[in-house]
Specification:
- The chain has 281 residues and is α/β, with parallel strands linked by helices.
- Helices cover 37% and strands 23% of the residues.
- The chain has nine helices and twelve strands.
- The strands form three sheets. Strands 4-1-5-12-6 form a five-stranded mixed sheet, with helices on both faces.
- The protein is globular.
């Protein structure tokens, strides 16, 4: 599976280079957001701890999210600047105007929409992984009753399990162990101190492909909101009311999609299950 993933990644990388070349050569600059904290630069808050969507490689930001934000910035002739921080610190940094936007696989929820605006760019979802030899499988969030599950604190995964925690039978309590990042949560599974980790579906799929001796997929892609509910859409996050900034980035994203670069990025990282145009669940 690891070899297969690398082949797909190599093919995707070639497609991405071709699409980016055509994109750069055939595009004029779109209007930039008027309220940037640093002129000429799109400052992006991101948590670089969740491959394949966002991680550090050779001392630089890598993965789907940095590549997408770089393409969006270039469409407006801006330089992207990535500010790496823990997920929990992203929203305070945005409110304090230390960054222009957040793009770090943030699920668009009704609660978040009360305080922030979004440009939708991906389809999220969550997935459980276990140790490779555990043979555990969870069809719904409620199936984690009776087990210890590692999660990222403050995440939609944590909220999903907290919603069903109180409905667990008395003899099968759910134990949640929050951590600062998804990688830490998965490491708890590898160490055997948690039965499962509940993480973004892309992170789970990538981890199993890279470490099949350590991890196994232990659920379908779940919405995190219960059976027969739609998976969260993932969005670039803005301060509430900055409509001009939202409009500028949305127009740039549409151009990236039209150029073919979006398709190439999804193919490079084997993330077609998050294609905004094709996923309806």
């Amino acid at each position: 599976m690891k070899w297969h993933f690398r082949v797909l990644s190599a093919i995707g990388a070639l497609l991405l280079l071709a699409a980016q070349g055509a994109f750069a050569q055939g595009s004029n600059c779109l209007p930039a957001p008027p309220n940037l904290i640093e002129p000429g630069t799109l400052t992006v808050g991101i948590s670089l701890a969740a491959p394949p969507t966002a991680f550090m490689k050779d001392d630089a930001a890598a993965g789907l999210d940095p590549e997408l934000m770089t393409a969006i910035a270039q469409a407006m002739c801006l330089k992207p600047k990535f500010v790496n921080m823990a997920f929990a610190g992203l929203f305070p940094a945005l409110i304090a105007k230390k960054i222009d936007v957040i793009h770090s696989q943030v699920g668009i929820t009704d609660v978040r929409k009360q305080s922030f605006d979004f440009v939708t760019v991906f389809v999220g979802g969550v997935r459980l992984i276990t140790q490779a030899n555990s043979k555990l499988y969870f069809n719904t969030e409620s199936d984690t009753c009776g087990y210890t599950t590692a999660i990222m604190g403050g995440s939609t995964q944590m909220a999903a399990l907290e919603r069903v925690k109180d409905s667990c039978p008395a003899n099968k309590p759910m134990t949640l162990r929050p951590f600062g990042g998804q990688a830490e949560a998965m490491n708890e599974v590898a160490r055997g101190s948690a039965n499962a980790a509940f993480v973004d579906w892309a992170v789970a799929t990538y981890a199993v492909a890279q470490r099949p001796k350590d991890f196994a997929i232990a659920s379908p892609i779940l919405s995190g909101k219960g059976p027969n509910t739609q998976r969260n859409r993932i969005g670039i996050v803005f301060r509430k009311g900055e409509t001009a900034n939202v409009a500028a980035v949305e127009a740039a994203f549409k151009r990236v999609v039209q150029s073919g670069a979006y398709d190439a990025m999804l193919a490079k990282w084997s993330l077609q299950e998050g294609d905004l145009r094709k996923v309806n669940d």
